Amino acid sequence: MNTMPLVSIIVPVYNTEKYVADCLASLLDQTWTDLEVLCVDDGSTDSSLKIIHAIAARDPRLVVITQPNGGVSSARNSGLRRAKGTYVGFVDSDDTVDYTLIASLMSQMGPNWDIVIEGARRPESVVGIKEKADFASRVLRNELLNSPCGRLYRRSLIEESGLIFAEETSLGEDLLFNASYLSRARGVRTISGKRYFIREREGSLTRSFRPSKFEELMYVHDALRRILEWAASARMDSVLNYLRIKALASSLASARASRVIRDHRDMFARAKAMRESYPHLPVDLGDPQMRAVGWVYARLGLVPLTWLVVLSRWLRELTRHILRSKFVSAELGRRSTNSMTRVEEL
Fold it and tell me: For residue 103, how far is the Cα from the chain centroid?
């Protein structure tokens, strides 16, 4: 590219040959055209890299980067080192985005804002330490810091702060990156609406179980508490305790789904051991759901909460399937209309 793009989008790719073309099409078809898409192939063993090169040959805004397999954090860090845009965002290679995503985010970006986040319940503009601390507790509660996708960051702030994605853990690295960035951001804006569409696949790290998952999750929550010391408050303490309880239940649910837990006795034994590791996690403040989770954990233990995690995962997957179907239908309709318009012009 001959000019410096205003927006850089980093797409880590690893063995997503079934999805990467759709992902890149949704990015290269954005109404906001002043961008570069940095596709970082993380040692794929399928035809992903071949597909990416074919698309790059047709659109010079797509930059292909290759590296040996190092994990998604390593791939994102490689993209950050090569990015040229004033603002940077991330998209996972099996996901798609609405064609107005970048334009919607950029319409709210300005000199006083270091990050714009989509998917919030309502639009917000946040400045000042106290306001930002209150905001941090809310977005943590609503899980808006769990992913780097669906938002734009100011690249200069990332570089000046020396921020990178933690490569020593494969769980919660996005949360730690976002919390660290938020602690340094001068101003934050959010926009409502869903323009980023997640594809949940069986076997993904967030859903699969491995023996180290419990320890990794607890490491992340210990680190998160240290990062957010600047925002310490009774409400933040309740939110962090609530999130740890959810992490414990999530770890147990993943073990159950993977058949590591073979019967109810094994499940109760594991739940009891986890409960003994963290006997006091009071959730005294927050919304009714938070307080209910804290009450169940304190009085009934982890097993009931684990079943709720299983149910919520099923409902979330159903909702995403419905949203994705609507998006695909809308895209097909839009492209059909555009094709008809071009034919009429000819």
Answer: 19
Which class would CATH give 7-199?
Answer: alpha beta
pTM listed for this prediction: 0.81
- Nearest CA to 177 out of 167, 164, 188 is that of 164
> pLDDT by residue for the chain (346 residues), tens digit each?
457 789 999 999 999 999 999 999 999 999 999 999 999 999 999 999 999 999 999 999 999 999 999 999 999 999 999 999 999 999 999 999 999 999 999 999 999 999 999 988 889 999 888 899 999 999 998 888 999 999 999 999 999 999 999 998 778 899 999 999 999 999 999 999 999 999 876 544 444 445 566 778 888 889 999 999 999 899 999 999 999 888 888 777 776 655 555 545 555 566 677 777 778 888 888 888 889 888 888 887 877 787 777 677 667 677 767 776 766 666 666 666 655 554 454 4
Domain ranges, ordered by start, for the chain: 7-199, 213-314
Q: Rg of the chain over CA atoms, in angstroms?
A: 21
